[in-house]
């Protein structure tokens, strides 16, 4: 199978798991190591695949902002359902906010300039794009979203894994529709600013 010969894809996903395992090994170093991980994601993605940008600035800003608002609305609705779901997922979500929310000014800087571009360039612009060369778009979206979510298993928070999978499906579908990494970055930025900075859910 050709996919098994794609050493860049396989190698990068393995490295992503190693980096995230290290990142979640100690909450005190999370922001340092996740910054390093996303710098790797950015470097690897831009040297491996051409960055898709098939939308005009006005278009990707509009769709980016609207889609970011929409995804936040989905998570807001989910927030109200959490207390009624099993496995104490509301408590898991609350502890995520408590342990990993930005605390210092440089946290906000790397969130905007490193985390968000790194995740979109790598997971959609590289991983999903590579998978789409072996499978149809739906399979590529599902597989890339599962791989994206899988790196968060080391957080020991299954709610984070599920949230990442849902977000991956959303942004993966958006990527197939518009083929614009800048639009995804804007969407992710709007979503994160609402979820983490402006209107956190916990």
Automatic annotation (TrEMBL):
Superkingdom assignment: Bacteria
Bilayer-crossing regions: 7-24, 30-48, 60-85, 105-122, 134-153, 159-177, 184-201
Organism expressing this protein natively: Bacillus lumedeiriae
Assigned keywords, A-Z: Membrane, Transmembrane, Transmembrane helix
Residue ranges constituting the CAAX prenyl protease 2/Lysostaphin resistance protein A-like domain according to the UniProt record: 104-193
UniProt-listed Pfam families: Rce1-like
Name of the protein this chain belongs to: Type II CAAX endopeptidase family protein
């Amino acid at each position: 199978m050709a996919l098994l010969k794609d050493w860049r894809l396989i190698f990068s996903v393995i490295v992503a798991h190693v980096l995230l395992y290290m990142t979640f090994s100690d909450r005190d170093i999370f922001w340092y190591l996740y910054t390093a991980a996303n710098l790797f994601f950015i470097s690897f993605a831009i040297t491996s695949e051409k960055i898709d940008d098939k939308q005009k600035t006005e278009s990707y800003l509009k769709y980016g902002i609207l889609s970011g608002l929409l995804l936040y609305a989905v998570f807001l609705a989910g927030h109200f359902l959490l207390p009624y779901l099993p496995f104490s997922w509301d408590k898991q979500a609350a502890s995520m906010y408590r342990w990993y929310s930005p605390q210092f000014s440089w946290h906000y800087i790397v969130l905007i300039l490193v985390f968000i571009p790194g995740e979109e360039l790598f997971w959609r612009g590289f991983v999903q794009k590579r998978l789409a060369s072996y499978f149809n778009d739906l399979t590529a979206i599902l597989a890339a979203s599962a791989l994206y979510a899988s790196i968060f298993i080391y957080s020991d928070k299954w709610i984070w894994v599920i949230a990442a999978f849902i977000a991956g499906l959303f942004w993966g579908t958006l990527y197939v529709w518009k083929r614009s990494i800048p639009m995804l970055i804007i969407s992710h930025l709007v979503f994160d600013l609402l979820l983490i900075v402006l209107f956190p859910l916990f």
